[in-house]
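Posting for a labmate who doesn't have an account.
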Amino acid sequence: MKTILLMRHAEAQFEQGDQTDFDRTLTPDGEKMASQTGALLRAHGMKICRILASAAPRTLHTAQLVAAQACPTAPLVPLTELYACSTERLVSTLFRHCCPDEDSILLVAHNPGVSGLMCRWANQDLSVQPATLLAFTADTDDWDAFRRTPSQVALFIRDAQVQPPLDDA
């Protein structure tokens, strides 16, 4: 069984002064939501072997807060190429960084790419607010097969709460 957890970064501050979009940081509410999401992952027994995150401060901080609660020993890999990228680029980057001996990966990224991927894999339109997380599982032991195998949503977290299962589309 392989699992990919997709997460949009938590709530971020608006650009301030000459700050760029890349350099935006989390709000206090965003920090709280990221920590709560990590606690929910731990409570649901979601194993995370490695974390891939955009190198933008808000995504890295989101990933760090989730990891502190859910998987403190999982390595965190910051990737500049995940900043403001398309759904297709998210997919190619994600699978390029999957190791055969790992069973689960958390990817923390930005809209619209990450919401596009969540909607594609869930096969429905979803409201992907900050800190939304969907965990997808596929009955395979091979990452290449994960791409071809129908996956199912194992966990849906939005607003720092576990959501009901998604309707079949």
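Reply:
Got it, the structure tokens are right above this. The first helix runs from residue 28 to 43.
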